[in-house]
Design brief:
Layout: H1 2-27, H2 32-49, E1 57-58, H3 61-95, H4 107-130, H5 141-151, H6 157-172, H7 182-200, H8 209-212, E2 214-217, E3 220-223, H9 250-282, H10 288-301, E4 311-312, H11 314-322, H12 329-349, H13 354-363
Antiparallel strand pairs: 1-4, 2-3
């Protein structure tokens, strides 16, 4: 009975995590498949090596404000190297038994920190939500706000229509008390509506995952997400911000170290907070130091398979517990479900509008 309950809870969380993982990867400045690779590899490794039986790990909103500047300056390769280094720092934190330090962080600090992250993420989504014509969202927060205000005259009514439709579904769907997660139904309906409008009128066109992202593998190019399982590759073999292979050097490590330390501290904070919340919901007891070590191992291995930094996610963990999850098996099933989705559903995922992904993050 426990195994059956955990399989079902893993499938439920997988449905929730699939769109979120893509949306958070896009918000971090990388292609959506990197978010999916994170949800597959990191969630399974951390579940089997961490100190909580019910935590579900993957890309989270808290990381977006930290990861986006790294991608803009050092590219996807620099980001994965930062996460790789952060993994070792997390393991050292666990070995040094620093897990209990989470208890001394004041509650107002956590609330202020989380609210600030929410503001920044919401601001970054306005461009795709309204279809604004902005080439690059570089600069500090106020610089981004100025760019948005200057681009308001370029608002695209088709993108805005789909964005508001998605938000409406996200807000209204819970009232039906359906077991189908609102994230899934909102993206499904918005994709269908956008496709129908494009069939009825040649003038109706919105940006989608398929039109925004492309890949090339062994000379074969495609749109959207490559239908391939995560494959091993050293992070430094990937591109920097200029699209060139990264050259590992002491100077590069020195430049990336502050970012890696930030990722490690933020990851430890969020994962242990999540574990505390999970204990209250499930009645179980986690080991904070073991959880740090598990998070570290997951963040060491995930970048080797294209995964961005990961930590325990409160929304997914809460959904896991409510659905009956009580064992690490549910996190493993969640990862395997996303792996299956990459292999079987990538043609459909390519039709998801970018405005809908922005709307999803605005609500999150």
């Amino acid at each position: 009975a426990d195994i059956q309950a955990n399989i079902l809870s893993g499938l439920t969380v997988g449905v929730i995590a699939l769109p979120l993982s893509m949306a958070l990867a896009i918000a971090s400045g990388v292609a959506p498949q990197h978010g999916l690779y994170t949800a597959i590899v990191a969630s399974i490794v951390i579940a089997l090596s961490g100190g909580s039986k019910v935590n579900i790990s993957g890309p989270t909103a808290a990381f977006v404000v930290v990861l986006l500047p790294i991608v803009q300056q050092f590219g996807i390769g620099g980001l994965l190297i930062s996460g790789f280094i952060a993994g070792f720092i997390l393991v050292l934190m666990g070995v040094a038994k620093l897990g209990k330090l989470i208890e001394i962080i004041p509650y107002p600090v956590i609330i202020g920190f989380t609210a600030g992250i929410g503001m920044v993420i919401a601001t970054l989504q306005i461009k795709d939500f309204l279809g604004l014509n902005i080439e690059s969202m570089d600069g500090h927060y106020l610089d981004k706000l100025i760019l948005i205000f200057q681009a308001i005259p370029s608002i695209n009514w088709q993108e805005t229509l789909i964005g508001f439709f998605t938000i409406s579904v996200l807000l209204i769907w819970p009232r039906f008390r359906s077991k189908i997660p609102r994230h899934l139904i909102a993206l499904l309906l918005s994709s269908i509506v956008a496709w129908l409008f494009s069939q009825l009128s040649q003038d109706f066109s919105v940006a989608t995952i398929g039109s925004r992202f492309h890949y090339e593998i062994n000379g074969i190019s495609g749109a959207g997400i490559p239908p391939l399982i995560p494959s091993f590759e050293w992070p430094w073999n990937l591109a920097d911000a200029q699209g060139k292979p990264i050259k590992i050097s002491f100077e590069l490590i020195r430049q990336l170290l502050p970012a890696a330390i930030t990722i490690a501290i933020l990851g430890s904070l969020e994962s242990l907070l999540c574990a505390v919340v999970a204990d209250g919901m499930s009645g179980k007891k986690h080991s904070s130091n073991d959880e740090l070590i598990g998070q570290g191992i997951g963040n060491i291995i995930a970048p080797l398979f294209g995964g961005i930094p990961a930590t325990a996610a409160i929304a997914r963990t809460a959904a896991n517990i409510k659905a009956g999850g009580s064992l690490p098996l549910s996190s493993v099933i969640h990862g395997l479900f996303i792996l299956f989705s990459i292999l079987a559903l990538t043609p459909l995922l390519a039709h998801i509008p970018m405005a809908s992904m922005a709307a999803l993050l605005l609500v999150v």
